[in-house]
Amino acid sequence: MFSLALRYLCGFACATHPSNRETPEWPPHPDRVFMALSAAYFETDQRPEERALLEWLESCPQPSIQAAAVTSEHAAVPVYVPVNGDRRNMKKPIMVMPDKRKRDKRYFPAVIPESDTVHLIWDVNLPIEHRPALERLCAKVGYVGDTSSLVQMWVEDNPPSPTLIPVPPQRFTQRLRVPCRGRLRDLEADYKRDNDAGEYQPRVFSWGHYRAPESPPTPILPGSAYRLLIFRREEGPVLDIMDTLAITDALRGAVMCYYPEQPPPEWVSGHAPDGLRSDRPHLGFIALPNVGNEYADGTLKGVGLAVPGNVPQTEVDRCLDGLFGSEEPRPAELAMGKLGVWQIVPEDSFRPLVALTEDTWCRPARVWVSTTPIVLNRYPKTDGDAEKNIADSCEHAGLPRPQEVVLLRASLFTGVPLARQFPALPSKFGKGQSLHTHALLIFAEPVRGPVILGAGRFRGYGLCRPYRNGGEA
């Protein structure tokens, strides 16, 4: 094992997140550190042993990361700075001083972490022949990110325990850019391409999948056959929980439109190759409201994708790359007609809202309560028919059958309207508001979420949340 330690000499890190120029990046992505080392190589004497070291490093497994929590964030105030030349012809010589040039808007977001030192930790041994070259390159690196992010970098043989570890991609919480085999060659080709074209062009990144280590290991619990991907609203009008169908319809439309393969596969569209409705697990589209707290107002803070657990991560990545871009990530636009347009980005901030954390919707619990109405599959004809309908829906979603189902007119969470006040599903579903109900579900043992039930489960209805007060969470 070996690690690279980065100490931010000014106590802050200034670097823009790849998905949003106004948002800071933290922790520093491994690929950003690799590019800093590569720049140190290209801008100095380019020794063969340094190139050999970088080519070995890019072929190593993804590193773990130790990075402290953030104490404060510097607002991304726009700054207008002189450009280096005519963007349409960067080869044109600059004939005027900087104070006479056109100024373009730039952002310099920054974070102040609790500790000024970050470690990238590789679970491989550093070959003795590469150590001198790595130490020499580390000494040449002066900053990571913006030039104001001055760093000291060194090789550390005894790093602390990581706070983020690479994981199999089935249940990641963060995607970070990572170097891969051939990265040094690609960076060299990108520089030549940009220099010849006279303008900067987007680079292609490779993504690694990370989450915090679990200690002690959690027992295997029964749970949903789906996993949850969360996206936050970056820009757009404030919407209410009653607008759930509008935002989930816009999210589905964007995913379908931008999926690289047309028509999209069955797990995305929910339709079999013959055009009939699929009976296999497929994408669910949900809205994430601010409910169940003293400040609950029912506003939507973001959206999510409920992804079937059996879908390969390569397919999920294709979906995300289509939605947000495979080169330099961009926000995805969700158009909702008269309601306006949302811009969304993956939620990977270091202090997410409660409504945008996986734990809020997926934490193991025995007692769950609906936040959007559960839409019954059929009109109940006898007493207990509705409860049985919901229990059957649990099994259909891969959950255990609940011990008890209690129907509710109103959710137990604050900020949620009555079930029959929510708009009905589109007429093609044939489900009116009379089939709407809230419910409390009690399981024999804790189950993992997401718990999404009923006929509207793929359009944002039937979204449940663990219930603490009066029940075990």
Structure description:
By secondary structure, the chain is of the alpha+beta class. The protein folds into 2 domains: about 210 residues, Alpha-Beta Plaits; about 240 residues, no CATH class. It has a 5-stranded antiparallel beta sheet, covered by helices on one side. Strand 3 and strand 4 form a beta hairpin. The longest helix is centred in the middle third of the chain and has 15 residues. It is elongated. About 0% of the residues have low confidence.
Q: Overall mean pLDDT score?
A: 87
Tell me what portion of residues adopts beta-strand conformation: 25-35%
How would you sum up the global shape?
A: elongated
Low-confidence stretches: 85-95
Number of domains: 2
Number of strands: 24
Computed structural class: alpha+beta
Biggest sheet: strands, sense, closure?
Answer: 5 strands, antiparallel
What characteristics describe this protein?
473 residues, alpha+beta, five-stranded antiparallel β-sheet
Itemize the secondary structure elements and their pairings.
Elements (H helix, E strand, L loop, with lengths): L1 E7 L4 E2 L1 E2 L2 E5 L5 H13 L5 H11 L5 E3 L3 E5 L4 E4 L20 E4 L3 E4 L3 E6 L8 H10 L10 E6 L8 E2 L7 E5 L4 H15 L8 E6 L14 E10 L8 H15 L7 H4 L14 E6 L10 E9 L4 H12 L7 E4 L5 E6 L11 H5 L2 E6 L3 E2 L9 H12 L7 E5 L27 E12 L16 E3 L7
Antiparallel strand pairs: 1-10, 1-11, 2-9, 3-4, 5-10, 6-9, 7-8, 12-14, 13-14, 15-17, 15-19, 16-17, 18-19, 20-23, 20-24, 21-23, 22-23
Helix pairs in contact: 1-2, 2-3
